[in-house]
Amino acid sequence: MSMFVGFGSDNHSGVHPDILQALTNVNEGYAVAYGSDKYTTHAFAQMKKVFGKQTSVFFLFNGTATNILGLKNVTSSYHSILCAESAHLTVHECCGPENFIGCKLVNIPTADGKLSVDLIEPYIVGVGDQHMAQPRVISVTQASERGTVYRPAELQTLADYAHDNNMVLHMDGARLSNAAAFLKQGLYDVSGRAGVDVLSFGGTKNGMMFGEAVVFFNKELAMNFEYVRKQGMQLASKMRYISTQFSAFLSHDLWLQNALHANEMARLLAKELTSIAGIQITQKVEANMVYAVIPNQCITALQKQYYFHRFNERTCEVRLMCSFTTTEEEITRFVSAVQNAMKKK
After folding, report:
1. Residues 211 and 317 in one domain
2. DSSP string, 73-104
3. How confident is the model over 6-65, as pLDDT tens digits?
């Protein structure tokens, strides 16, 4: 029996049929390259309808690049970027920010993946001191790497603090759709309207094949980004294949349908695991991920059948991801496997 990989990451899922159809639809004939095509123009209009007319939007290939290049455009090499110690920016981008931006990343411990002013304040040091890195960016992840979601009021508090201290608020929105779905609010409501200055908006984890966007809510911060994107090797020649995906993603609330399903499956998975004696859910299940402590010998047995990540080897905490393709049957099979493993431990 082959290993089931569906709980390893929402990146493991395929492409939504509507996205595939959109790609097929734009595959006929010719289109001007590098974004000067009607499909990209249409996608920009949709993005501005969602995020506001005042925005500047740029399409890139992947999430790491949207984070790094978006941040590069608002910083200088003597700046520092403050983020949660669990942030993708600092854990899973292979020192890319340090390499391409040249900034210092300041990793802030946080139990639930979320930052607050109280957590950040002790790290705002050396302002104006030429010998020290100058704080420039607060970077948050929505939903966080621990599956928790910032409420708009929390973001606004962070934004106000950032702006009062001559900083900008950046958001890694790889799972922004899941956060908005959980809060029952629009994508703009849980990003730009709440004070975010620069957004990395992701679709790959929620049904797209590839393609992400950098959204600048302040056009002044977007100045010269087209050159930064080109230097960063993220300017797609056949841009229509990214643009049309975003058009389909935003049409008829496809982003919302996919995110709602993924979130619902995560809640179901957490509920079923909670019913098993000896299993502990460690984080609030607000998006599409479940963190649980499972006895080590059970993890070893389960990973012969299922691919998922150990988040903390010392505490036997694992991360289980759900996506728009996760089914109740898959959850039932996995929970049954956990029950069997627990009986044998």
Report:
1. no
2. TT--TTEEEEEETT-HHHHSSTTHIIIII-PE
3. 999 999 999 999 999 999 999 999 999 999 999 999 999 999 999 999 999 999 999 999
Q: Which two tokens stand for residue 17?
A: 């049929």
Residues 260 and 234 in one domain: no
Q: How many structural domains compose the chain? A: 2
pTM of the model: 0.97
Scored b (16 or more CB within 10 A) or e, 193-220 reads bbbbbbbbbbbbbbbbbebbbbbbbbee
232 with 176, same domain: the answer is: yes
Close Cβ partners of 102 (under 8 Å, ≥ 6 residues apart): 77
For residue 252, how many other CB atoms are within 10 A of its CB?
Answer: 10
Does residue 4 fall inside a structural domain?
no
Q: List, for residues 306-344, the tens digit of each pLDDT value.
A: 999 999 989 999 999 999 999 999 999 999 999 999 988
Please indicate, yes or no, if residue 32 is contained in any of the structural domains. Answer: yes
The radius of gyration of the chain from alpha carbons, rounded to an integer in Å, stands at: 20
Contact assessment for residue 75 and residue 81, using Cβ atoms and an 8 Å cutoff: yes
Same domain, 247 and 259: no
